[in-house]
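Chain A, query sequence.
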Amino acid sequence: MPGPALVLATRFTESPVGPYLRLAIAEPARLGMRPGWTLTTVVVDSVHARVGEQLNWGIPAELGTLRWSSRDDERELLWEERQVGVGVACRGPRIPVKVPLRSLQERDDGPVVVPGRIGGMARFGPVTVTVSSRDELDWASGRHRGFLVTGLQQIMREARHPIGLRSTLLAPQRAPNPVLYGKRRAVRCAPDSGRIAQLARAHASHA
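Chain A, predicted structure.
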């Protein structure tokens, strides 16, 4: 589905799996009559966050080394392995925002629709994405319009299976994928299996 992509750099200070950093790229997508976003590239620095995102919502998260830096009104996140950086420097007043989000992902048990929302205080400003010219993400490199969200709350609801063009049914809490492999070892599940919605307070920069 044509349209602009989103580059999201997030520092979660609270979540069901603890604090972690996340860099994600979302591209516009459609499933039947349902428009939304599909996360095509996601890197986190927490094993449990990776497992939870893959099993609960079909998000193709991978493990990586992420570095967050903060200075005054500037934020930057660097993915060291691929030397992908996202930085934002914002000025002006803070504006309250609350945005509904619909993620369309592919789990082992088929396509799923993941409703959710984000909210917080936003300040608009330029976002700079740096990517090596030899990297497949080089199309995202450059200066873009974006914003910084502080005091961010993100909620991701239970995944739902699409039925027909418009209807959805509640999907199992997790896809039937018993083992995921990380850099050093296999991981069998994320902790706290009863908590499916992800509620986090974070400082985030979104492009």
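Residues 6-206 form a domain with the Acetoacetate decarboxylase-like fold (CATH 2.40.400). DSSP finds one helix and 15 strands in the chain.
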